Protein backbone atom coordinates (compact mmCIF):
# COMPACT_ATOMS: atom_id res chain seq x y z
CA UNK A 1 0.00 0.00 0.00
CA UNK A 2 1.50 3.33 -1.11
CA UNK A 3 1.43 6.22 1.33
CA UNK A 4 -1.03 8.89 0.24
CA UNK A 5 0.29 12.07 -1.32
CA UNK A 6 -2.82 13.96 -0.30
CA UNK A 7 -4.85 12.93 2.69
CA UNK A 8 -8.04 14.72 3.67
CA UNK A 9 -9.71 13.63 6.86
CA UNK A 10 -13.25 14.85 7.68
CA UNK A 11 -12.49 18.19 6.09
CA UNK A 12 -14.90 21.06 6.81
CA UNK A 13 -14.89 24.57 5.43
CA UNK A 14 -17.45 27.20 6.35
CA UNK A 15 -17.34 30.64 4.73
CA UNK A 16 -18.81 33.42 6.84
CA UNK A 17 -20.73 35.63 4.47
CA UNK A 18 -23.16 38.49 4.96
CA UNK A 19 -26.02 36.10 4.24
CA UNK A 20 -24.87 33.76 7.00
CA UNK A 21 -22.46 30.82 6.96
CA UNK A 22 -21.99 28.84 3.75
CA UNK A 23 -20.92 25.24 4.09
CA UNK A 24 -18.47 24.91 1.20
CA UNK A 25 -17.05 21.56 2.30
CA UNK A 26 -18.59 19.10 4.69
CA UNK A 27 -16.94 15.95 6.02
CA UNK A 28 -14.72 15.39 2.98
CA UNK A 29 -12.38 12.41 3.41
CA UNK A 30 -10.16 11.37 0.54
CA UNK A 31 -6.76 9.85 -0.11
CA UNK A 32 -4.80 10.40 -3.30
CA UNK A 33 -1.77 8.19 -3.96
CA UNK A 34 1.27 8.96 -6.09
CA UNK A 35 0.61 8.84 -9.81
CA UNK A 36 -3.17 9.03 -9.46
CA UNK A 37 -5.25 11.09 -11.87
CA UNK A 38 -8.23 12.16 -9.81
CA UNK A 39 -11.08 14.14 -11.33
CA UNK A 40 -13.56 16.12 -9.28
CA UNK A 41 -16.95 16.51 -10.90
CA UNK A 42 -20.16 18.07 -9.72
CA UNK A 43 -22.38 21.10 -10.24
CA UNK A 44 -21.40 24.65 -9.29
CA UNK A 45 -21.14 25.15 -5.57
CA UNK A 46 -20.27 21.53 -4.77
CA UNK A 47 -16.89 22.52 -3.38
CA UNK A 48 -14.66 20.89 -5.98
CA UNK A 49 -12.68 24.06 -6.64
CA UNK A 50 -12.69 24.88 -2.93
CA UNK A 51 -11.14 21.48 -2.18
CA UNK A 52 -8.42 22.12 -4.74
CA UNK A 53 -7.77 25.55 -3.24
CA UNK A 54 -7.47 23.96 0.22
CA UNK A 55 -4.82 21.58 -1.12
CA UNK A 56 -3.02 24.61 -2.56
CA UNK A 57 -3.33 26.48 0.75
CA UNK A 58 -5.29 29.25 -0.98
CA UNK A 59 -8.19 28.49 1.39
CA UNK A 60 -7.90 27.16 4.91
CA UNK A 61 -10.27 24.48 6.20
CA UNK A 62 -12.22 25.26 9.36
CA UNK A 63 -12.31 21.65 10.51
CA UNK A 64 -10.71 18.25 9.95
CA UNK A 65 -7.18 17.68 8.75
CA UNK A 66 -5.45 17.89 5.39
CA UNK A 67 -1.89 16.88 4.54
CA UNK A 68 0.03 17.23 1.29
CA UNK A 69 3.18 15.09 1.03
CA UNK A 70 2.76 14.48 4.76
CA UNK A 71 2.94 18.23 5.51
CA UNK A 72 0.43 20.99 6.10
CA UNK A 73 -0.67 22.59 2.81
CA UNK A 74 1.19 25.80 3.73
CA UNK A 75 4.47 23.96 4.25
CA UNK A 76 3.90 21.89 1.13
CA UNK A 77 3.55 25.08 -0.86
CA UNK A 78 6.83 26.37 0.55
CA UNK A 79 8.40 23.09 -0.57
CA UNK A 80 7.03 23.62 -4.10
CA UNK A 81 4.85 20.52 -3.86
CA UNK A 82 2.40 21.52 -6.55
CA UNK A 83 1.84 23.46 -9.73
CA UNK A 84 -1.56 25.11 -10.14
CA UNK A 85 -3.34 25.60 -13.46
CA UNK A 86 -6.23 28.03 -13.38
CA UNK A 87 -9.39 28.24 -15.44
CA UNK A 88 -7.90 31.02 -17.55
CA UNK A 89 -4.35 30.80 -18.80
CA UNK A 90 -3.56 34.07 -17.02
CA UNK A 91 -0.34 34.65 -18.95
CA UNK A 92 1.23 38.07 -18.45
CA UNK A 93 0.69 40.00 -21.68
CA UNK A 94 3.99 41.87 -21.21
CA UNK A 95 6.02 38.67 -21.09
CA UNK A 96 6.77 36.28 -23.92
CA UNK A 97 5.70 32.67 -23.57
CA UNK A 98 9.21 31.77 -22.39
CA UNK A 99 9.12 34.76 -20.04
CA UNK A 100 5.83 33.58 -18.58
CA UNK A 101 7.17 30.10 -17.96
CA UNK A 102 10.25 31.64 -16.40
CA UNK A 103 8.13 33.61 -13.91
CA UNK A 104 7.94 30.93 -11.17
CA UNK A 105 11.60 30.08 -11.72
CA UNK A 106 12.62 33.72 -11.19
CA UNK A 107 10.53 33.96 -8.05
CA UNK A 108 11.93 30.71 -6.69
CA UNK A 109 15.46 31.88 -7.43
CA UNK A 110 16.67 29.40 -10.03
CA UNK A 111 19.98 30.23 -11.74
CA UNK A 112 19.70 31.81 -15.20
CA UNK A 113 21.16 28.90 -17.12
CA UNK A 114 18.93 26.48 -15.26
CA UNK A 115 15.89 28.69 -16.05
CA UNK A 116 16.59 28.58 -19.76
CA UNK A 117 17.10 24.83 -19.71
CA UNK A 118 13.85 24.21 -17.87
CA UNK A 119 11.87 26.54 -20.13
CA UNK A 120 13.12 24.63 -23.17
CA UNK A 121 12.21 21.32 -21.57
CA UNK A 122 8.65 22.15 -20.59
CA UNK A 123 7.93 23.93 -23.88
CA UNK A 124 8.88 20.64 -25.51
CA UNK A 125 6.62 18.73 -23.09
CA UNK A 126 3.52 20.72 -24.01
CA UNK A 127 4.40 20.71 -27.71
CA UNK A 128 5.16 24.43 -27.91
CA UNK A 129 8.83 24.22 -28.85
CA UNK A 130 9.74 27.25 -30.95
CA UNK A 131 6.95 29.43 -29.53
CA UNK A 132 9.02 30.77 -26.62
CA UNK A 133 9.58 34.17 -28.22
CA UNK A 134 5.93 34.76 -29.08
CA UNK A 135 3.65 36.93 -26.99
CA UNK A 136 0.49 35.40 -25.50
CA UNK A 137 -1.84 37.29 -27.84
CA UNK A 138 -0.12 35.67 -30.81
CA UNK A 139 -1.25 32.21 -29.60
CA UNK A 140 -4.67 30.52 -29.74
CA UNK A 141 -6.62 29.88 -26.55
CA UNK A 142 -5.61 26.22 -26.51
CA UNK A 143 -1.95 27.04 -26.96
CA UNK A 144 -2.14 29.64 -24.19
CA UNK A 145 -3.58 27.07 -21.82
CA UNK A 146 -0.80 24.64 -22.77
CA UNK A 147 1.72 27.37 -21.98
CA UNK A 148 0.09 27.83 -18.57
CA UNK A 149 0.44 24.06 -17.97
CA UNK A 150 4.10 24.34 -18.95
CA UNK A 151 4.44 27.18 -16.41
CA UNK A 152 3.01 24.90 -13.71
CA UNK A 153 5.41 22.10 -14.70
CA UNK A 154 8.52 24.29 -14.88
CA UNK A 155 9.66 23.90 -11.28
CA UNK A 156 9.13 20.14 -11.19
CA UNK A 157 6.39 19.86 -8.59
CA UNK A 158 5.10 16.30 -8.12
CA UNK A 159 1.47 17.35 -7.97
CA UNK A 160 -0.46 19.13 -10.68
CA UNK A 161 -3.64 20.88 -9.55
CA UNK A 162 -5.92 21.85 -12.41
CA UNK A 163 -9.10 23.89 -11.98
CA UNK A 164 -11.23 23.45 -15.11
CA UNK A 165 -8.24 24.25 -17.30
CA UNK A 166 -10.09 23.51 -20.53
CA UNK A 167 -13.48 24.89 -19.47
CA UNK A 168 -13.30 27.93 -21.72
CA UNK A 169 -12.18 26.06 -24.84
CA UNK A 170 -14.29 24.55 -27.59
CA UNK A 171 -14.86 20.82 -27.69
CA UNK A 172 -12.52 20.02 -30.59
CA UNK A 173 -9.59 21.80 -28.95
CA UNK A 174 -10.54 20.27 -25.63
CA UNK A 175 -10.44 16.70 -27.05
CA UNK A 176 -7.01 17.36 -28.43
CA UNK A 177 -5.73 18.81 -25.17
CA UNK A 178 -7.19 15.93 -23.17
CA UNK A 179 -5.26 13.51 -25.32
CA UNK A 180 -2.07 15.52 -24.86
CA UNK A 181 -2.64 15.80 -21.12
CA UNK A 182 -2.89 12.02 -20.77
CA UNK A 183 0.31 11.64 -22.74
CA UNK A 184 2.01 14.23 -20.54
CA UNK A 185 0.75 12.49 -17.41
CA UNK A 186 2.11 9.14 -18.63
CA UNK A 187 5.51 10.68 -19.37
CA UNK A 188 5.93 12.77 -16.23
CA UNK A 189 4.17 10.44 -13.74
CA UNK A 190 2.75 13.42 -11.87
CA UNK A 191 -0.12 13.16 -9.44
CA UNK A 192 -3.00 15.07 -11.01
CA UNK A 193 -6.07 16.61 -9.37
CA UNK A 194 -8.43 17.82 -12.06
CA UNK A 195 -11.66 19.78 -11.57
CA UNK A 196 -14.19 19.59 -14.39
CA UNK A 197 -17.83 20.05 -15.33
CA UNK A 198 -17.70 17.51 -18.12
CA UNK A 199 -18.57 13.84 -17.56
CA UNK A 200 -16.75 12.53 -20.69
CA UNK A 201 -13.66 14.54 -19.80
CA UNK A 202 -13.62 13.17 -16.25
CA UNK A 203 -14.10 9.59 -17.39
CA UNK A 204 -11.60 9.83 -20.21
CA UNK A 205 -8.78 11.29 -18.09
CA UNK A 206 -9.09 9.77 -14.66
CA UNK A 207 -7.96 6.76 -12.74
CA UNK A 208 -10.45 7.86 -10.11
CA UNK A 209 -13.49 10.08 -10.32
CA UNK A 210 -14.78 11.91 -7.27
CA UNK A 211 -18.44 12.84 -7.68
CA UNK A 212 -19.45 15.76 -5.48
CA UNK A 213 -22.77 17.33 -4.61
CA UNK A 214 -23.69 20.78 -3.31
CA UNK A 215 -25.17 22.36 -0.18
CA UNK A 216 -23.15 21.36 1.72
CA UNK A 217 -20.28 20.43 -0.59
CA UNK A 218 -19.57 16.74 0.00
CA UNK A 219 -18.39 13.61 -1.76
CA UNK A 220 -21.28 11.61 -3.20
CA UNK A 221 -19.31 8.78 -4.80
CA UNK A 222 -15.75 7.74 -5.63
CA UNK A 223 -15.40 5.67 -8.79
CA UNK A 224 -12.30 3.64 -9.67
CA UNK A 225 -11.95 3.61 -13.41
CA UNK A 226 -11.58 0.16 -14.97
CA UNK A 227 -10.27 1.68 -18.20
CA UNK A 228 -6.74 0.76 -19.31
CA UNK A 229 -3.92 3.29 -19.03
CA UNK A 230 -3.58 3.44 -22.79
CA UNK A 231 -6.58 5.49 -23.95
CA UNK A 232 -7.14 6.49 -27.55
CA UNK A 233 -9.92 9.06 -28.04
CA UNK A 234 -12.33 6.45 -29.47
CA UNK A 235 -12.29 4.59 -26.18
CA UNK A 236 -15.20 6.90 -25.44
CA UNK A 237 -17.47 4.75 -27.61
CA UNK A 238 -16.71 1.49 -25.79
CA UNK A 239 -19.24 -0.10 -23.41
CA UNK A 240 -16.76 0.15 -20.49
CA UNK A 241 -16.48 3.91 -20.95
CA UNK A 242 -20.23 4.37 -21.18
CA UNK A 243 -20.66 2.21 -18.10
CA UNK A 244 -18.38 4.47 -16.05
CA UNK A 245 -20.04 7.58 -17.45
CA UNK A 246 -23.39 6.13 -16.44
CA UNK A 247 -22.15 5.58 -12.88
CA UNK A 248 -20.93 9.16 -12.68
CA UNK A 249 -24.35 10.35 -13.82
CA UNK A 250 -26.03 8.13 -11.23
CA UNK A 251 -23.74 9.54 -8.56
CA UNK A 252 -24.63 13.09 -9.54
CA UNK A 253 -28.33 12.22 -9.43
CA UNK A 254 -28.02 10.53 -6.03
CA UNK A 255 -26.35 13.66 -4.72
CA UNK A 256 -29.36 15.70 -5.88
CA UNK A 257 -27.04 17.54 -8.20
CA UNK A 258 -29.68 17.68 -10.90
CA UNK A 259 -32.24 19.48 -8.76
CA UNK A 260 -33.09 23.10 -9.52
CA UNK B 1 -2.26 60.36 -44.02
CA UNK B 2 -5.94 59.58 -44.04
CA UNK B 3 -6.38 61.50 -40.80
CA UNK B 4 -4.91 64.72 -42.22
CA UNK B 5 -7.98 65.76 -44.17
CA UNK B 6 -10.46 65.64 -41.25
CA UNK B 7 -7.98 67.45 -38.99
CA UNK B 8 -7.38 70.17 -41.60
CA UNK B 9 -11.11 70.53 -42.08
CA UNK B 10 -11.66 71.11 -38.38
CA UNK B 11 -8.76 73.57 -38.22
CA UNK B 12 -10.15 75.50 -41.19
CA UNK B 13 -13.57 75.70 -39.58
CA UNK B 14 -12.09 76.98 -36.32
CA UNK B 15 -9.96 79.59 -38.13
CA UNK B 16 -12.97 80.73 -40.16
CA UNK B 17 -15.09 81.07 -37.01
CA UNK B 18 -12.25 82.92 -35.36
CA UNK B 19 -11.99 85.46 -38.18
CA UNK B 20 -15.75 85.92 -38.14
CA UNK B 21 -15.61 86.44 -34.39
CA UNK B 22 -12.76 88.92 -34.70
CA UNK B 23 -14.69 90.98 -37.25
CA UNK B 24 -17.86 90.93 -35.14
CA UNK B 25 -16.14 91.83 -31.87
CA UNK B 26 -13.78 94.48 -33.19
CA UNK B 27 -16.36 96.18 -35.46
CA UNK B 28 -17.63 98.51 -32.73
CA UNK B 29 -14.28 100.19 -32.23
CA UNK B 30 -13.72 100.66 -35.98
CA UNK B 31 -17.18 102.17 -36.41
CA UNK B 32 -16.74 104.47 -33.40
CA UNK B 33 -13.43 105.72 -34.79
CA UNK B 34 -14.98 106.32 -38.18
CA UNK B 35 -17.96 108.14 -36.66
CA UNK B 36 -15.67 110.41 -34.70
CA UNK B 37 -13.70 111.25 -37.85
CA UNK B 38 -16.96 111.71 -39.76
CA UNK B 39 -16.01 109.07 -42.28
CA UNK B 40 -18.18 106.58 -44.16
CA UNK B 41 -16.54 103.15 -44.42
CA UNK B 42 -17.33 100.43 -46.93
CA UNK B 43 -17.80 96.86 -45.68
CA UNK B 44 -14.40 95.88 -47.07
CA UNK B 45 -12.72 98.71 -45.21
CA UNK B 46 -14.47 97.78 -41.95
CA UNK B 47 -13.40 94.15 -42.26
CA UNK B 48 -9.83 95.12 -43.14
CA UNK B 49 -9.62 97.43 -40.12
CA UNK B 50 -11.03 94.93 -37.64
CA UNK B 51 -8.25 92.50 -38.53
CA UNK B 52 -5.35 94.90 -37.96
CA UNK B 53 -6.16 96.89 -34.84
CA UNK B 54 -3.41 97.35 -32.32
CA UNK B 55 -5.54 96.44 -29.31
CA UNK B 56 -8.39 94.38 -30.66
CA UNK B 57 -10.94 92.75 -28.39
CA UNK B 58 -10.18 89.53 -30.23
CA UNK B 59 -6.95 89.47 -32.23
CA UNK B 60 -7.13 87.76 -35.61
CA UNK B 61 -5.18 84.51 -36.09
CA UNK B 62 -2.58 86.11 -38.34
CA UNK B 63 -1.90 88.80 -35.73
CA UNK B 64 -1.30 86.15 -33.06
CA UNK B 65 0.83 84.18 -35.49
CA UNK B 66 2.92 87.24 -36.35
CA UNK B 67 3.39 88.09 -32.66
CA UNK B 68 4.38 84.48 -31.93
CA UNK B 69 6.94 84.59 -34.73
CA UNK B 70 8.24 87.99 -33.65
CA UNK B 71 8.85 86.78 -30.09
CA UNK B 72 10.27 83.36 -30.95
CA UNK B 73 11.65 82.58 -34.38
CA UNK B 74 12.65 86.13 -35.23
CA UNK B 75 14.45 86.49 -31.87
CA UNK B 76 16.34 83.27 -32.54
CA UNK B 77 17.41 84.58 -35.95
CA UNK B 78 18.66 87.74 -34.27
CA UNK B 79 20.57 85.58 -31.78
CA UNK B 80 18.56 86.90 -28.84
CA UNK B 81 16.49 83.81 -28.05
CA UNK B 82 16.91 84.38 -24.32
CA UNK B 83 16.30 88.11 -24.15
CA UNK B 84 13.50 89.27 -21.86
CA UNK B 85 11.28 90.09 -24.81
CA UNK B 86 11.48 86.56 -26.13
CA UNK B 87 8.66 84.12 -25.54
CA UNK B 88 11.28 81.35 -25.55
CA UNK B 89 12.86 82.93 -22.48
CA UNK B 90 9.53 83.17 -20.68
CA UNK B 91 8.57 79.69 -21.87
CA UNK B 92 11.80 78.31 -20.47
CA UNK B 93 11.13 79.92 -17.07
CA UNK B 94 7.70 78.31 -16.96
CA UNK B 95 9.01 75.02 -18.37
CA UNK B 96 11.66 74.62 -15.69
CA UNK B 97 9.09 75.11 -12.93
CA UNK B 98 6.70 72.77 -14.74
CA UNK B 99 9.25 69.98 -15.06
CA UNK B 100 10.42 70.28 -11.49
CA UNK B 101 6.86 70.32 -10.18
CA UNK B 102 5.98 67.40 -12.45
CA UNK B 103 8.89 65.36 -11.13
CA UNK B 104 7.95 66.09 -7.52
CA UNK B 105 4.23 65.51 -8.16
CA UNK B 106 4.64 62.31 -10.14
CA UNK B 107 7.13 60.89 -7.62
CA UNK B 108 4.90 61.78 -4.70
CA UNK B 109 1.85 60.40 -6.52
CA UNK B 110 3.52 57.06 -7.20
CA UNK B 111 4.74 56.77 -3.60
CA UNK B 112 1.29 57.58 -2.22
CA UNK B 113 -0.32 55.04 -4.58
CA UNK B 114 2.11 52.32 -3.51
CA UNK B 115 1.34 53.14 0.11
CA UNK B 116 -2.41 53.15 -0.47
CA UNK B 117 -2.32 49.77 -2.20
CA UNK B 118 -0.14 48.10 0.41
CA UNK B 119 -1.25 49.72 3.63
CA UNK B 120 -4.81 49.62 4.86
CA UNK B 121 -4.44 52.62 7.12
CA UNK B 122 -3.17 54.71 4.20
CA UNK B 123 -5.92 53.35 2.00
CA UNK B 124 -8.53 54.64 4.44
CA UNK B 125 -6.85 57.96 5.28
CA UNK B 126 -4.94 59.35 2.28
CA UNK B 127 -7.52 59.29 -0.49
CA UNK B 128 -10.10 61.62 1.17
CA UNK B 129 -7.35 64.16 1.80
CA UNK B 130 -6.04 63.88 -1.73
CA UNK B 131 -9.53 64.52 -3.08
CA UNK B 132 -10.10 67.38 -0.62
CA UNK B 133 -6.83 68.97 -1.72
CA UNK B 134 -8.12 69.22 -5.27
CA UNK B 135 -11.40 70.86 -4.29
CA UNK B 136 -9.55 73.95 -3.04
CA UNK B 137 -9.28 76.50 -5.86
CA UNK B 138 -5.62 76.64 -6.84
CA UNK B 139 -5.88 80.39 -7.40
CA UNK B 140 -6.74 80.79 -3.71
CA UNK B 141 -3.97 78.63 -2.36
CA UNK B 142 -1.16 79.59 -4.77
CA UNK B 143 -0.41 83.03 -3.24
CA UNK B 144 -0.38 81.49 0.23
CA UNK B 145 2.13 78.86 -0.82
CA UNK B 146 4.32 81.55 -2.35
CA UNK B 147 4.07 83.78 0.71
CA UNK B 148 4.65 80.99 3.23
CA UNK B 149 7.66 79.62 1.33
CA UNK B 150 9.04 83.13 0.85
CA UNK B 151 8.85 83.80 4.59
CA UNK B 152 11.03 80.77 5.28
CA UNK B 153 13.49 81.89 2.66
CA UNK B 154 12.49 79.63 -0.21
CA UNK B 155 12.21 81.66 -3.38
CA UNK B 156 12.66 81.27 -7.11
CA UNK B 157 11.83 78.02 -8.82
CA UNK B 158 10.71 75.89 -5.91
CA UNK B 159 7.53 77.71 -4.82
CA UNK B 160 6.18 77.53 -8.37
CA UNK B 161 7.20 73.89 -8.61
CA UNK B 162 5.35 73.17 -5.37
CA UNK B 163 2.15 74.56 -6.87
CA UNK B 164 2.73 72.44 -9.97
CA UNK B 165 3.30 69.38 -7.82
CA UNK B 166 0.16 70.17 -5.84
CA UNK B 167 -1.88 69.90 -9.03
CA UNK B 168 0.00 67.06 -10.70
CA UNK B 169 0.27 64.46 -7.93
CA UNK B 170 -3.46 63.84 -7.89
CA UNK B 171 -4.01 62.24 -11.32
CA UNK B 172 -0.94 60.08 -10.69
CA UNK B 173 -2.30 58.84 -7.35
CA UNK B 174 -5.69 58.02 -8.80
CA UNK B 175 -4.30 56.36 -11.93
CA UNK B 176 -1.62 54.37 -10.15
CA UNK B 177 -3.95 53.11 -7.41
CA UNK B 178 -6.21 51.81 -10.13
CA UNK B 179 -3.26 50.41 -12.08
CA UNK B 180 -1.61 48.70 -9.13
CA UNK B 181 -4.96 47.15 -8.23
CA UNK B 182 -5.69 46.02 -11.79
CA UNK B 183 -4.33 42.44 -11.46
CA UNK B 184 -7.30 40.16 -10.76
CA UNK B 185 -7.65 37.65 -7.93
CA UNK B 186 -6.50 34.77 -10.12
CA UNK B 187 -3.21 36.46 -11.01
CA UNK B 188 -2.58 37.23 -7.34
CA UNK B 189 -3.44 33.63 -6.40
CA UNK B 190 -0.98 32.38 -9.01
CA UNK B 191 1.85 34.28 -7.34
CA UNK B 192 0.67 32.98 -3.96
CA UNK B 193 1.09 29.42 -5.22
CA UNK B 194 4.74 30.32 -5.86
CA UNK B 195 5.00 31.71 -2.31
CA UNK B 196 6.06 35.05 -3.83
CA UNK B 197 6.93 37.85 -1.41
CA UNK B 198 5.02 41.17 -1.48
CA UNK B 199 8.07 42.76 -3.08
CA UNK B 200 8.12 40.16 -5.85
CA UNK B 201 4.37 40.54 -6.37
CA UNK B 202 4.93 44.27 -6.77
CA UNK B 203 7.85 43.98 -9.18
CA UNK B 204 6.60 41.11 -11.30
CA UNK B 205 2.87 41.78 -11.38
CA UNK B 206 1.58 45.04 -9.94
CA UNK B 207 4.11 47.44 -11.43
CA UNK B 208 4.02 46.08 -15.01
CA UNK B 209 0.20 45.92 -14.85
CA UNK B 210 0.13 49.57 -13.80
CA UNK B 211 2.45 50.84 -16.54
CA UNK B 212 -0.26 51.71 -19.10
CA UNK B 213 -2.18 53.54 -16.34
CA UNK B 214 1.00 55.36 -15.33
CA UNK B 215 1.53 56.96 -18.74
CA UNK B 216 -2.09 58.04 -19.01
CA UNK B 217 -1.87 59.72 -15.61
CA UNK B 218 1.48 61.30 -16.44
CA UNK B 219 -0.04 63.00 -19.48
CA UNK B 220 -2.78 64.56 -17.35
CA UNK B 221 -0.25 65.41 -14.64
CA UNK B 222 2.03 67.18 -17.13
CA UNK B 223 -0.78 69.39 -18.38
CA UNK B 224 -1.87 70.13 -14.80
CA UNK B 225 1.72 70.88 -13.87
CA UNK B 226 1.99 73.53 -16.59
CA UNK B 227 -1.21 75.15 -15.40
CA UNK B 228 0.21 75.12 -11.88
CA UNK B 229 3.43 76.82 -12.97
CA UNK B 230 1.53 79.54 -14.83
CA UNK B 231 -0.80 80.15 -11.89
CA UNK B 232 2.25 80.24 -9.63
CA UNK B 233 3.70 83.09 -11.69
CA UNK B 234 0.66 85.32 -11.33
CA UNK B 235 1.00 86.38 -7.67
CA UNK B 236 4.79 86.87 -7.74
CA UNK B 237 4.54 90.29 -9.30
CA UNK B 238 4.75 88.78 -12.72
CA UNK B 239 8.19 89.50 -14.01
CA UNK B 240 9.17 86.29 -15.73
CA UNK B 241 7.37 83.35 -17.32
CA UNK B 242 4.32 82.77 -19.48
CA UNK B 243 2.09 83.66 -16.53
CA UNK B 244 3.90 87.00 -16.31
CA UNK B 245 3.27 87.63 -20.01
CA UNK B 246 -0.43 86.92 -19.52
CA UNK B 247 -0.63 89.24 -16.55
CA UNK B 248 1.40 92.04 -18.17
CA UNK B 249 -0.68 91.70 -21.31
CA UNK B 250 -3.90 92.13 -19.36
CA UNK B 251 -2.51 95.13 -17.40
CA UNK B 252 -1.78 97.01 -20.59
CA UNK B 253 -4.63 95.72 -22.71
CA UNK B 254 -2.18 93.93 -25.00
CA UNK B 255 -4.59 91.30 -26.20
CA UNK B 256 -2.23 90.14 -28.94
CA UNK B 257 0.42 89.47 -26.31
CA UNK B 258 -2.07 87.59 -24.12
CA UNK B 259 -3.15 85.40 -26.98
CA UNK B 260 0.36 84.69 -28.12
CA UNK B 261 1.34 83.73 -24.55
CA UNK B 262 -1.74 81.50 -24.42
CA UNK B 263 -0.74 79.82 -27.63
CA UNK B 264 2.83 79.55 -26.41
CA UNK B 265 1.55 77.70 -23.33
CA UNK B 266 -0.68 75.48 -25.44
CA UNK B 267 2.17 74.58 -27.79
CA UNK B 268 4.43 73.87 -24.84
CA UNK B 269 1.77 71.62 -23.27
CA UNK B 270 1.26 69.80 -26.56
CA UNK B 271 5.00 69.19 -26.88
CA UNK B 272 5.34 67.91 -23.32
CA UNK B 273 2.31 65.63 -23.53
CA UNK B 274 3.52 64.47 -26.94
CA UNK B 275 6.90 63.54 -25.45
CA UNK B 276 5.19 61.42 -22.81
CA UNK B 277 3.13 59.87 -25.59
CA UNK B 278 6.31 58.87 -27.41
CA UNK B 279 7.80 57.43 -24.21
CA UNK B 280 4.55 55.57 -23.69
CA UNK B 281 4.58 54.10 -27.18
CA UNK B 282 8.21 53.00 -26.89
CA UNK B 283 7.77 51.48 -23.44
CA UNK B 284 4.59 49.60 -24.24
CA UNK B 285 6.11 48.35 -27.46
CA UNK B 286 9.14 47.07 -25.60
CA UNK B 287 6.81 45.38 -23.12
CA UNK B 288 4.90 43.73 -25.93
CA UNK B 289 1.71 45.52 -24.88
CA UNK B 290 1.34 47.53 -28.08
CA UNK B 291 0.14 45.52 -31.04
TrEMBL record, chain A:
One of its GO terms (molecular function) is ATP binding. Residues 6-239 form the ABC transporter domain. Pfam families: ABC_tran. InterPro entries: AAA+_ATPase, ABC_transporter-like_ATP-bd, ABC_transporter-like_CS, ABC_transporter_ATP-bind, P-loop_NTPase. Keywords: ATP-binding, Nucleotide-binding, Transport. Belongs to the ABC transporter superfamily. This is NitT/TauT family transport system ATP-binding protein. It comes from Rhodovulum iodosum.
Automatic annotation (TrEMBL), chain B:
This is NitT/TauT family transport system permease protein. Belongs to the binding-protein-dependent transport system permease family. Residues 87-280 form the ABC transmembrane type-1 domain. It comes from the Bacteria. PROSITE patterns: ABC_TM1. Coiled coil: none annotated. CDD domains: TM_PBP2.
